[in-house]
Task: structure prediction
Amino acid sequence: MNALARITIITLAIGLSACAVQQPEPTRLPPIPPSQPGPKPSTPATPAKPGVPAKPSKPVPRTSASFAPPPGGNSHWDQKLGVYVLDDQPDTFYRQRTYYRWNNGWSRSISPNGPWEETNIHGVPAGLGKQYGQ
Result:
């Protein structure tokens, strides 16, 4: 074979091999829509009609999502204090199997009827300490 034929065959072989190893272009998927909705269009505020009472706010929950209520007692959950407030015993609270009582100082018990042991502000839930502070 002459040199021209060799060069032609080599050039064709190189050119065809380049086509064989070329990666196909990846398939493009449509963009994923955002998971959070965009800003809502603002609506003009309507003034309250005279004589029509405003909607009452949501009722305060009687129980906590995190803490069980005291057994057998009437109580309600106080979000600010972070404890159940016993309805029939003044200044008596409950959280996590412990009752807390304020009587010019803190005491705690495993029963709402005692026996009570004295404790300090560090022995009560934080919300109670802030409310009654010593």
